[in-house]
Write a structure and sequence with these properties.
Length: 390
């Protein structure tokens, strides 16, 4: 018996026995339940091991040692909490805490994809590691996959569809997790698995569990939302290829994103997109000596100058990120009489002659151009966050 199983067994026996009671007197029925559960976990590990052997032949390991190290380090932090901290709520799947020996493997592929196998085998594609714009976003993906494994979603899918035999699972995994028809047996059950991937309730439960795991580990759970939103932005291009990658196994949806946001708000956790992704963040960089250019994602906003342009740019960056993190409407951006641009009646920026000089224009023209640029960014942000979710 593996160490994790032995530890779980000992803890379970002590729980059933009660404080100060001899474990030899544990109710026989409870002991049988524990043993049956251990056999289920052993089956998970066996299936995962066999499937991992298959995937290890199909995929080459990454050539980027730094990516592998990064994923292993992030995964280890998350796995430690998942294995040792109790109290996580499970929406669907295994509610008992289990200890798994998680293995994180980065594979050589440009696709934006990740998947898990029973027993804690988690595969991440090079393309996804590069797509993640922060450790928080990458940790969000890993936390989601850990919850698929710890909540034993494949086993619960098997229970719901009793016609699925244990010997079929590694083959169906090839369909569910990669969107490939290779090696699949014919039949309506396989077709359902291929078409739908994880069920909606499994995805929402992995999202919810992943958010709890991120919070417990110290990562920003907003990253699960931004990663999903940015995936949605990429979906149009991804649909042009045969393999939809993560869209097949983890389809983004407004329902899933709304569920994460609702959980965060109910727990008074601020949603700050600028903290976890460059796409929805205002940044400032030195454009030329004495001039700093501000951008929202890749969109140019305006440049500022003056006696201390670096400090001025830093202050404006914080102010604008605070504003955009509230997801404003276009009409909430207005202009004043002396070079000001306001957001929800609060000052965002006040341009002066120094700013106008470094831009080769007038204060009034800067004000007009900046307000248009900010409104355009507000529209784009709202579209990708709300309308883009589908």
């Amino acid at each position: 018996m593996m160490l994790a199983s032995a530890l779980y067994m000992a803890g379970s026996l002590a729980l059933f026995a009660g404080e100060g009671q001899d474990t030899k007197k544990v109710d026989a029925k409870k002991l049988k339940e524990i043993q049956a559960f251990e056999r289920e976990l052993d089956e998970d590990r066996r299936i995962g091991k066999e499937a991992a052997e298959y995937y290890d032949k199909e995929y080459k390991p990454t050539k980027d040692a730094a990516s592998q190290k990064r994923v292993e380090e992030l995964g280890a932090k998350l796995a430690l909490i998942a294995n040792t901290q109790s109290g996580f709520k499970t929406l669907w799947g295994e509610k008992r805490q289990i200890m798994l020996e998680y293995r994180f493997k980065v594979v050589d592929s440009k696709d934006i994809n990740a998947f898990c196998l029973p027993g804690g085998y988690i595969y991440v594609y090079d393309g996804l590691v590069k797509f993640a714009q922060s450790d928080d976003e990458l940790a969000g993906v890993l936390a989601h996959e850990i919850c698929h494994a710890s909540q034993r979603h494949l086993a619960y899918m098997q229970k719901e569809q009793a016609k699925m035999g244990a010997m079929q699972i590694p083959l169906i995994l090839a369909s569910i997790l990669t969107g490939s028809n290779a090696g699949l047996m014919a039949g309506s059950l396989v077709g359902t698995a291929l078409t739908n991937g994880w069920s909606v309730k499994a995805e929402e439960s992995a999202d919810n569990g992943g958010v709890q795991l991120l919070i417990a580990t110290g990562y920003n759970p907003t990253a699960m939302i931004t990663f999903m939103e940015r995936l949605q932005m990429e979906q149009g291009a991804m649909e042009k290829v045969v393999d939809l990658g993560i869209f097949r196994t983890h389809p983004p949806s407004r329902r899933r994103a709304d569920s994460i946001e609702a959980f965060m708000r109910s727990n008074s956790i601020p949603i700050r997109r600028s903290a976890v992704t460059a796409t929805f963040r205002v940044t400032a960089s030195e454009f030329s000596p004495g001039t700093y250019l501000l951008k929202f994602g890749n969109r140019k906003l305006f440049a500022v100058g003056g006696d201390n342009p670096k400090a001025k740019a830093a202050e404006l960056t914080k102010r604008l990120n605070d504003f955009f993190d509230t997801v404003p409407e276009m009409y909430e951006i207005t202009v004043g009489d002396q070079g000001e641009v306001f957001g929800r009646n609060k000052l965002l920026v006040r341009f002066d002659e120094d700013d106008a000089q470094v831009n080769g224009t007038t204060v009034q023209k800067m004000q007009e151009d900046a307000s248009k640029a900010l409104r355009s960014c507000a529209f784009s942000l709202a579209y990708h966050i709300w309308e883009g979710r589908g």
